[in-house]
Amino acid sequence: MKFSATGHSYIDADSGTALDAWFPASADPVRSCLAREAGLLRSETVELTIDLDDAPTSVADAYLRLQLISRREVQPNGANLDGLFGLLHTVAWTTAGPMLPAMVDQLRGEAAKTGHHVGVFGLDKMPRMTDYVVPEGVRIANANRVRLGAHLAEGTTVMHEGFVNFNAGTLGPAMVEGRISASVTVGAHSDIGGGASIMGTLSGGGKEKISVGEHCLIGANGGLGISLGNNVSIEAGLYLTAGTKVTLPDGGVVSARELSGISDVLFIRNSTTGVVELRPGSGQGWSGINEALHKN
Fold first, then answer.
1. Tens-place pLDDT, residues 169-178
2. Which of 9, 60, 113, 260 has its CA 20 to 30 A from that of 287?
3. Three-state secondary structure along the chain?
4. Which of 37, 44, 73, 177 is catalytic?
């Protein structure tokens, strides 16, 4: 699939290093910042046509792919992101604009001449999503915890300790109080409880792309290393990896990877024996997210 877009790129004035690219969905790509006004950045218009099936080839190409995901025009895992990290530079994301980290002190000096303070809110290869894309119908309590390239469906709430990585996110209304790692998708009406974590391709999951179905609950401080179908609950505090031994209702024991994609069940740890057990669900899942909280 091909996309064409016109954007605006900030470039380090001394080295010529491209730091970012912004591709607004429905406005002219015009912006400015204190670092540019001080002569530490230059900017240029970028006109780009990319094929999502091919690997990205430039900073601007990488940024367009990430923004398409955050704008909900492409779903997570719907674009080739091979080699993306190698194209991007570590940037100091400041209140005066993006800068190479080595240039921050000079930026502060230039800003002081006009009575401005420069704050640095991150050193990373990717910025906050909300500095480039602001999707409708979502709430994000702490914008620093949602990276550009996150896909947040309408009705999603990301609470203060929730985290959503790039090329990952929600496909419907959902509550995110835990961590959604790269390549992970979460279905509608599911809840990722406080402190819960889902294993992604950048955090030990290899090439396995984990999905969580609809009406699922991962309890507080729980975790997940396999995919889930619909109407599945994981007990608070239980981290279910692919190798976790699970006792079935008939007494048999299997590795959790053999249950990947299962629906209508409950995973618990027996408080007497410590054994992880699978129990049949009601077929209706848990009670679901609070609709009043997700009318965003």
1. 999 999 999 9
2. 260
3. CEEEEEEEEEEECCCCCECCCECCCCCCCCCCCHHHHCCCEEEEEEEEEEECCCCCCCHHHHHHHHHHHHCCCCCCCCCCCCCHHHHCCCEEEECCEEECHHHHHHHHHHHHCCCCCCCEEEEECCCEHHHCCCCCCCEECCHHHEECCEECCCCEEECCCCEECCCEEECCCEEECCEECCCCEECCCEEECCCCEECCCCCCCCCCCCEECCCCEECCCCEECCCCCCCEEECCCCEECCCCEEECCCCCEEEHHHHCCCCCEEEEECCCCCCEEEEECCCCCCCCCCHHHHCC
4. 177
